[in-house]
Amino acid sequence: SGFDFSRHGSVCLNGWPSWACARMGGDYGYADMPDLKRRRILITGGNSGFGLETARGLILNSNCDLVILACRNKARAEAAARSIVSAAVAQASKGERLPNGLEISTVPPKQRVEILILDLGDLDQIPQAAEELRSRHKSIDILINNAGVACFFSKKLVTKQGHELQFGTNHLGHFKFTSHVMDLLKRSEFKPARVVSVSSVAHEFSKGLDFTDLDWESRRFRGAVAYADSKLANVLFMYGLQKRLAAAGLSEVVTVVAAHPGFGATDIGRHSCAAWLANKLCAASIAKVAINEVRAAVDPTLRSGDYTNPKRWKLYGPPVKARTAEIARDPEQCESLWERSEKILQEPFKV
Fold first, then answer.
1. Other CB atoms closer than 10 Å to residue 129's CB: what's the count?
2. Distance CA 142, CA 254 (A)
3. What is the pTM of this model?
4. 216 — phi, psi (to 5°)?
5. N or C: which end of the chain has fewer CB within 10 A?
6. What confidence category does residue 262 fall into, taking pLDDT thresholds of 50, 70 and 90?
7. Annotated catalytic sites, by residue?
């Protein structure tokens, strides 16, 4: 089949400072971040939750040149950008060094954050967003597919094209968007570029995708199961892209990893009262667990096909490398998902 899940790939991010890997003996933190000067990073769903805190963490704790917040709601995206810029201005006025000892970016704070209108629930809008991005930048270095929705205990909701909302947004939208910006990743000056597929520990509870009814048209809708399936799809996407990059001879050009960011107080469960209550009672501060997505995006020691989750109970604490669920390593599930996704979208993935 061409898969080798025991190794999970073999390519580290090269071209980074050698000292970037020196502090990996303990828990990963912002002090372990490499030099990100001149890097452009795009985060889907960057206006709230993990996306916002990941963007804030990157701007305030690294010297990356630019973070692009790709969001559906323009007003919320602009508000998020303003909050990050305000914090960056305050930081610059203090003249302090970054946690890793490097100097803060010399790029003016207002120029370090951009917004891009992207609606992952509308497959027709995604190419427009990719074209807009292409008109602004000739390359991007890191793509964090962070945006997500959860309908744990709500009625079935659908995307603009009629797909079950969680599968349509969490998987199909990111599948298409990644395909349409792959050329920008391949043109990164800092090879290999990286794609992060943000999944969840929930993928471990999926029994496998039902390819006869991906949109829950014939089955009784169970939101929590559909969510777990969508998060399984995120991991399967990572493995599928890893395989295709290798087959195309692009393993040293683009790498792909997956991550479960942890249990943070986000609004991902806004469609469910029970999920909202669980967030209020049990979730950690997002700022405390945002390092999980950050590591997946920038750690040069991670290899293509790696997966990370929080250290404590897979919910809290710093990120550690982990093993995905057995169903996520099923080549048949992976290939079937890829084939069905291309068929649904009526276009091949542009590796």
1. 21
2. 9
3. 0.88
4. 55, 50
5. N
6. confident
7. 227
